[in-house]
Amino acid sequence: MTEQTEPVVQTDPQAVVQTDPQAVVVPPHEPPAPIEDPAPAPAPAPVKKNRRVLHAALRWTAAVVVFAAAGAGTAYGITAMKRTDVPGLATQSDGRWDYPTLVRPPLPSGSPGPFAEDNTAGTHYADLRALVLPAPEGAVQDQKLRGKDGWLATKDFLAEYPPGSARDDLRQEFVDDGLRHIAARGWTTPDGMRTRIYLLQFGTAEVVDDLFSHEAPIDGPRHPLRGTDGLVFDTDFPAEAHDHDVDYSVYIEKRPRGAEQTRQGYLSAGDVLAVILQSRKGAAQAVPFRQTVALQSELLG
Predict the structure, then answer these.
(1) Starting from the edge strand earliest in sequence, which strands make up the sheet with 75-80, in order?
(2) Do 90 and 14 form a contact (C-beta atoms < 8 A)?
(3) What are the residue ranges of helices labelled H in 97-252?
(4) Which long-range contacts (CB under 8 A, 24 or more apart) does 123-129 make?
(5) Can you tell me the distance from the alpha carbon of 259 to that of 39, in angstroms, rounded to the nearest whole number?
(6) Which of 97, 119, 189, 250 is a good FRET partner for 1, with 20 to 30 A between their CA atoms?
């Protein structure tokens, strides 16, 4: 049987709307033809809006993807909404990247999603390699992060950390926690921003929760990255810029720093710990980082 793919709308960060998972996205109606009766048409019934959504629409400067849930074994698609489709938005870029259409890989027949009630281990049954966010338009991909058959060696991930005790501690921690494998992708955009995304899969969500709380406390990452100094929690990061099932912890490198600035994010999503890194000479811009975190968390959610 051929898998069917249902489109899901990627909303603009300035106009976030939460939809019912089973709702059908209907294109705008054409203007009605003139009618003979001069009596005014009845006003449309008011639409109830969630206060949390309205609050998010005012605060969020990243991109949020809303997925239409279908069921086990179904793939999910995401299509981009043009800025000109949203009233009141200028056409000039706000710093977001143009990503290709994103598709969640289908689940094996009969397998639950990672946050289904009957999936107590929080297992991602879909191919983890297909859950890594693809590179945006115009980016040059880092072939070193493709690994072998799409799986990255642990030592290549650990190369993000300075050699010595920190790297050795992490290596042993991964052994003790039963790291299964790592899927990764990296790219560089024309403005010089280097992005690296690592998805580390473990046996259960409980293991990931413990690792997340240990490695990503609010006062700063436990293990500093190679070449960084002074990563602190990013208090300006909008809480709405991630899937509600996914826990996050994000950091920004403050001054004094070197020639580059780095942003780092951790996502705890079921049995997967995601590590998102972005670095750029001068300053690492906030908007593409928030967008990347939002889209990657939705793919894992």
Answers:
(1) 64-65, 5-11, 75-80, 102-104
(2) no
(3) 154-158, 165-177, 205-215
(4) 123/204, 123/205, 123/270, 123/271, 124/201, 124/269, 124/270, 124/271, 124/272, 124/300, 128/181, 128/183, 128/199, 128/201, 128/272, 129/183
(5) 67
(6) 119
34-50 burial, b at 16+ Cβ within 10 Å, e below that, comes to eeeeeeeeeeeeeeeee
- Closest CA relative to residue 273, chosen from 144, 185, 151, 180: 180
pLDDT of residue 93: 63
189-243 pLDDT, tens digit per residue, is 999 999 999 999 999 999 999 999 999 999 899 998 998 878 999 999 998 877 8
**Residue 164 burial (CB < 10 Å; 0-12/13-18/19+)?**
exposed
Determine contact, residues 61/295, Cβ cutoff 8 Å.
no
Q: What is the mean pLDDT of residues 259-282?
A: 96
In eight-state DSSP terms, residue 131 is G
Residues in the chain: 301
Helices (H), 99-141: none
**Tokens coding 108:** 């094996």
Question: Which tokens belong to 265?
Answer: 């994010």
Write b or e for each residue in 236-259: b if 16 or more Cβ atoms lie within 10 A of its Cβ, otherwise e.
ebbebbbbebbbbbbbbbeeebee
Q: For residue range 164-177, list pLDDT tens digits in order.
A: 888 999 999 999 99
| Closest residue by Cα to residue 278 from 104, 160, 156 | 160
Helices (H), the chain: 51-59, 154-158, 165-177, 205-215, 286-300
Q: Answer for the pair 242, 232: CB distance below 8 angstroms, yes or no.
A: no
